[in-house]
Amino acid sequence: MRKQILEIQKRMKEENIDAYMVMTDDFHGSEYVGDYFKCREYLSGFTGSAGRMIITADEAGLWTDGRYFIQAEAELSGSGIKLYKMGEQGVPDIMQYLSSNMLEGQTLAFDGRTVSAAATSNIEKRLSGKNIKIVYDVDLVGDIWDDRPERNCTGIWQLGIKYAGKSREEKIEELRNILKNNKSDGIIITALDEIAWLLNIRANDIDYNPVALSYLILETSEDENSYLFVNKNAVSDEIENELNKCRIFVREYDEIYDYVKVLEPGKCYMTDMSKANTMVVRNITSEVKIKNFISPVMQMKAVKNKAEMDNERISHIKDGVAVTKLIYWLKKNVNNMNITEMDVVNKLDDIRRDIDSYIEPSFATISAYGTNGAIVHYEPDEDSDKLITKDGFLLLDAGGHYLEGTTDMTRTISVGNISSEMKNHYTAVLKGNLRLADAKFMYGCRGANLDYIAREPLWKMGLDFKHGTGHGVGYLLNVHESPNSFRWKINPMQINSQDAVLEEGMITSDEPGVYIEGKYGIRLENLLMCVKDEKNYYGQFMRFDVLTMVPFDRESIDVSALNQDDRYLLNAYHSKVYETISSYMEEDEREWLKNETKEI
Amino acid sequence: MRKQILEIQKRMKEENIDAYMVMTDDFHGSEYVGDYFKCREYLSGFTGSAGRMIITADEAGLWTDGRYFIQAEAELSGSGIKLYKMGEQGVPDIMQYLSSNMLEGQTLAFDGRTVSAAATSNIEKRLSGKNIKIVYDVDLVGDIWDDRPERNCTGIWQLGIKYAGKSREEKIEELRNILKNNKSDGIIITALDEIAWLLNIRANDIDYNPVALSYLILETSEDENSYLFVNKNAVSDEIENELNKCRIFVREYDEIYDYVKVLEPGKCYMTDMSKANTMVVRNITSEVKIKNFISPVMQMKAVKNKAEMDNERISHIKDGVAVTKLIYWLKKNVNNMNITEMDVVNKLDDIRRDIDSYIEPSFATISAYGTNGAIVHYEPDEDSDKLITKDGFLLLDAGGHYLEGTTDMTRTISVGNISSEMKNHYTAVLKGNLRLADAKFMYGCRGANLDYIAREPLWKMGLDFKHGTGHGVGYLLNVHESPNSFRWKINPMQINSQDAVLEEGMITSDEPGVYIEGKYGIRLENLLMCVKDEKNYYGQFMRFDVLTMVPFDRESIDVSALNQDDRYLLNAYHSKVYETISSYMEEDEREWLKNETKEI
Questions:
Q1: Which of A83, A303, A437, B90 has CA 20 to 30 A from A194's CA?
Q2: Which residues of B touch chain A, with CB atoms under 8 Å apart?
Q3: Residue spans of alpha helices (H) in A334-408
């Protein structure tokens, strides 16, 4: 058995723990986690982005999903850790494993900072028949991890009103009104993007997410002290002074766990149990009332204000110019240079680096050639890097953070010959993308009402893609944010937190695809900004503005498969792209773009 | 004040009742109610199909919705009853009225047989602050109503296995398995169509719903006695014997209220609180456990079996021939005969009467000419009956019950000149109808995922229709049944009972429309049967079979507004209609049909 596991098992024995669970999450449920939080990786050697472990006195198991079966098998080889392939027939999930392996009265432990309060309640419920004791205030991996990396502590900076559109004072006042209406004395916010948005601060503590490791306890009364828990070294005097003006005081990041123990009895705090971690919630005494509520900040943040909406148009022009230049470069040079997937990533970085207001990529660029395109979450690295030859598709999924907002787009680019089947599939994906962007709908619709539009051309051909059609996108924040989305499956329990009514100012991606294993992948992604359309006797109509400004791949379109409405939509989009970005292009680029976008 | 109200107020005083509520419902929440149940009409004089009353010591109010404001004002004139126009600004709803008018400790009473148990719980919750006493076992209207009509008691007959597809024994066994899996000792069924479906019986106690007034308490154990509560006179010896073979014994209709009082303590019964009336549920002692559950019979009934599916195709051919003949007759004669809306209704009755296996209309035929077409729930009678002249649209919404199932279709028929706006609107409705019928989707989709398809052509023009796109349809049962539907609004609390996952064998109407007040109405309705399409790597695909076999109105279509896909769908449908029904037509009808359905 791997040394780290043996050490954990020794510690478990000392602490009378029968089963110890290790998650992949940080203390905030972030999509990406810093090195400090990579307990599961340290313990198992498995480096994938999803996976959980259970260690018992004589066993260690790791649960991960289909994306990682091959990688996990390789990385766990020789470790003595058993791989549980989630979703495969006959493979128990973690709860089934615990239910059948734990004995009456035994103890299950985990670091309660890495598990949401709602998840812990669910575990308790599932194990309730067995009188299992849950211990949530231990960090056994931390105990044995000698050279554990430091937590990230990048400098916090403020986002100016020109970009944020609203001051933190205004945002806080709006939030306080919501708290008052809900008869709450305060709110405990643990989601990093919510804190960053509310306070108009940004940092770099999480890869691709420009946020700071922090917690915020905001009192409803402006006469009481509120606290931001954060690494004090990350906060300049200037920012601290500004926060103090709002009666928000800075305390050390870890102090929240003691602070919540002394919240005033009788008070009522709102928090989102599906986000707040177990230790934050359970450290609160029973004399303080906790109101479980979908975070109002999540909703406020998702509805971009006028300045944010205007800025997003600017960032998408900047990024559209960059990506379009890249596509031209690729098309021009692929036949006379050795260009690899990574070269494309680096070239895009080079082009973007010259753009004022560009900050960083909003996620790791996917540059996937040929068969790699069929791997939905493929990300090239030095080992996998593939030379782009003169046939087939390159799938390029890239986004950037700008002061004017966050972009995310995907284009599938033919780099030479493609088959008629490829054209056929490309065109079906294109139709879905264009038609969804053209939706006009009554206010009150959710993504689940519209998802079919994007899938229809594929479903009619007996094809599908096994991911959502779209996710919400933050403003210079997480590229994946809730509560808006396009997904056809309706989860009634989470409809308002994951498939909210589409409001003016929400940004959602529109990204249907087709993935033919071992052959190629196609995905076409634009960001759509929801805006108001006409209001009449029947009510308020809504529609989308397409933010993304990058041409589709003319050579990959089978024009005969487009009906007249589709052709109209394609031509209108292409003419808009040309109008909007051509003046930022060099002469040869513009010539090429003119041809790419001319009427079909 | 109207005499009946004064009598009720006198009785209220005697019984110490401060507010008395009168509903429109029968004891089963039926869509149509027999004369015996028309307490609200007796009390108020208002004859509409929706409305509730509250009587207090010095007031009487009637609440109804926008469909009935004009009618209610006229019918209530001089009665002293105040009309509360539901949905108008500043008008309190019934609960708001009670909350603000009832005093601490007062008593609210109603006939608990006419209010669902769930609704009563809701009333209690809303009034909980005021310590209001709820009395549900009085029927004050019944007390004062001297010449109250008898309850309907039509003969019960059995639906043969050829039509039902499954014996009652098979159905009961399936239901018992569900009850076992849910650890219930029995089920209390109060919905009339559920009882009729489960026992393969039909009757005529409710207008248009071929069911018998009854309740059923089925024990999970086949060794215990189950009971059907029904007017014994309606049950022949033969049927009673057959029911007894399943250990189902017949008791008088009203006996259920005493029977539930003596259910065996410790037992657990499943019932659907949103359907079971308050008196049935509250008469059960607290030693018996009641499990509130969406009725499994509703789901079983909605998923038509193979025989039902095959039969439905037959009933729709029969009804399609009848309606197509009627349309031909109308088109041929409208210019040289005086034909009124009622004449059309009567002519359809005449044609159908000759069809073997035809039983009765499945709802009151809507034959609405010109401006009447814009009134969504218009039903012609002697007073409103309008002569059909040679311009504009006749909207015909008609359905029939056959041994082979229930039909429901709407056609909008031009009887002469129509404007280009009318053509334009007709064509948009047609596109919505055709495209929804052509949907192909992954198993798991609900109506809310598909509703947009039918509305899109209208929404894009800034139009809408203020009703669902589609409702479930029973098999020789209620023409409106749950749980399947096409509606875009998602109610997460009732998604499985009102917008269930579409299963093979479910029948749902597809009926978009446009209603231009004071001008005309357009609605086009086909019934769609959900069937399986291909199953492949991506999963199980589903699609619809169009059951309805009636041509669309060729003259009303603006061909230039159809894209090539729409034209393909229209031609395919028309060619199917011709193939399927032309051999049942007379020579001149067939000639006409050939022209109506020829390729566009």
A1: A437
A2: 439-442, 444-446, 448-453, 455-456, 459-460, 462-464, 466, 488-490, 492-493, 495-496, 534, 536, 538-539, 541, 563-565
A3: 341-353
